[in-house]
Amino acid sequence: MRKLIAVLSALVVACLAACSGPGQTGPYGAQGTRLGEALTLLGWDMTLSNLRWEVDHVLIDVTATLADPDAPHAAAADLRFGVYGTPAHPVEATGLGSCDALGELTPTPLSGSEPGRLNGTVCVGPLKERSAVRGIYAYSPADRIKDTTVAYGAAFPVGLPPINPYDTGLMLTAQGVAAFRADGIPLAPSALGDPKAFSGNGYMVLSLSADAVPGQYRDDAVARGGPLMLIAGPAAPMRGLGPDCLAAGSSVLILPDASLNSVHVPASLCTHGEINAAVLYASVSVVGTHAAVWTIS
């Protein structure tokens, strides 16, 4: 009888270790846990807590320390956070500087002033659909799982040409493209014949849809070690970026709510920099990456 009790106790302990705590399997190959608990992501021991709202932005408190300062880790400036759930389109922000638009409404924005530490609030938005939020995810566009990158050319006015979904398991379909000079003047297709139109800096906003077979995407992500992300380039720093470009960003994680049992993500990406590179010779890459999700429940 004592042996039976000991065996049952061991099984309970093993189950608790496997079913909870850091490293728990989340959606589509990402790590997953509840808000308020810690996960180790990209070399950072990270905890997200206190999800709340301010002026149609989701606010989340982040505390993180380097798990091993001497080991490889993501740069603090590369960490991006996004809404996990059912928004109409991905809503993401780079953590550092994400609360600038809210000003004094966020008195303690995320800061990396202490070496090896991150502490403060991340602001993600705008988003009016409060019921669409099930949690927050984090990833780094600079993190690439080995041998998972596939790149495609993208150019104005075509945008992204048809691609082979068997390359990555992800079907990318162009929905629209808009290009602008740095002074905000939009470019029409007729500008292709005007050499003066393509001087200086500029940017291009690509609208597309990312779709996949849910079961296959899930299996591939688990085997790969994480979901896919889209990265548009070049993304050189420049002045004059429009609000549509700033809202889109140059990367997006393909991490839909697993409860939907579908992978359909309408997204926008922005390329910017020297106008010829950003508008006529841009690229969109599909890349596997590591990610983590903190859910409300």
Mind explaining what this structure looks like?
- With 297 residues, this protein is mainly beta.
- The strands form 4 sheets. It has a 5-stranded mixed beta sheet, with no helix packed on it. A 4-stranded antiparallel beta sheet has the order 2-3-4-7, with no helix packed on it. The chain has a 4-stranded antiparallel beta sheet with strand order 9-16-13-14.
- It contains 4 helices and 17 strands.
- Keywords: Signal.
- This is DUF732 domain-containing protein.
- Residues 1-25 form the signal peptide.
- It comes from [Mycobacterium] nativiensis.
The H/E string reads: HEEEEEEEEEEEEHEHEEHEE
What count of helical segments does DSSP give?
A: 4
What structural category do the secondary elements indicate? mainly beta
Total domain count: 2
- Biggest sheet descriptor: 5 strands, mixed
Shape by Cα distribution = globular
Average predicted local confidence, pLDDT: 91
N- and C-termini, Cα separation: 38 Å
**Roughly what fraction of the amino acids lie in strands?**
35-45%
Round the Cα radius of gyration to an integer and report it: 21 Å
Count all strands and give the number. Answer: 17
Weakly predicted, low-confidence segments: 1-23
Helicity level: 10-25%
Protein name: DUF732 domain-containing protein
Signal peptide: 1-25
Keywords: Signal
